[in-house]
Structure formats: C-alpha cells, structure tokens
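Rather than argue in generalities, we have chosen a single entry, letters for residues, whole numbers for local backbone shapes, without further comment.
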Amino acid sequence: MSNLTHFNNEGRAKMVDVGGKPVTVREAVAGGTVFVNENTLHLISSGDIKKGDVFAVAQVAGIMAAKRTSELIPMCHPVAITSADISFKIDEKHKAIYIKATVRCKGETGVEMEALTAVSAAALTIYDMCKAVQKDIEISNIRLLKKTGGKSGDYNA
C-alpha cells in the first residue's frame, strides 16, 4: 500500500498532504443535464414554478455547494475558491437544461470536485423546485469538462 497516496501505513484512508505542492492558478469546468417534460420546461422558462425562480435558486445552491465541498466529500481538501459561476442553457428540442459550473482558485490542489459538486447541487435544486409538477425528472451526465493548472496538467473532455 506504500505507493497508494490515499492510504496510511495501516491501510486506512487518509487525506493526502498537498502542503509541498506549489500554489498555482487552477480552474475546473463541470457540466450536467436535467431532462424535463415540455410542460415543466415551459413553467421554468416562463417563471411560473410556484417555488420561485428556478435558475436563480439553483445558481445560488451550486455556488454554495462549491464552497462547502470539503464538508460533503470526506477526503476533499478545503479550498479557498476565488470564483464560482453556474450557467444554464435550455434546449427545447431535447427538453433539457444544460448546467455548467466554472470554479477557480489559487492553491495546492484543484477544484474539480467543487465544480462537480456545484453542478450536482444545481441539478438537485432544479429537481426539488419542479418535483411538484413532474416526478420523473432525470439528472444525467454530470462530468468534468475541463481542468487547468497543477502537476497533472490540463484536461479537456
């Protein structure tokens, strides 16, 4: 187990020490999709969901989730995020809402988990706000789209 970075000498999970890594600017972009029916999409677009502005609430939820990722994911380091943004795109043809989260920091470790958590929370918030009008909402394809900075280099899906 000595070559596995996330295990201690007893073979138990540990948080990796990133203290010796250089501080660099890092960015991660994650995406996901929420599929709804035509009626739900219309209600969201027209602002007629009874719980309020779906995108405004989901955006705040995503940003809050990015900031608290280390409280949700056990081995995730607390990261001083320098920015977080959530955007939404409606695709009427596929009855889909595309979510994109972009998170940045200057630190010793990346913000991929923060971006993925932001997308997840935004998608779950959309579900929560719309579940009264549609029970079979589908959350799909949450994934890392891009990352920059750090030892492992850049990644583009």
In short: Residues 24-148 form a domain with the Alpha-Beta Plaits fold (CATH 3.30.70.640). The chain has one domain: 24-148. The two ends are 31 Å apart (CA to CA). The chain is about 30% helix and 30% strand.
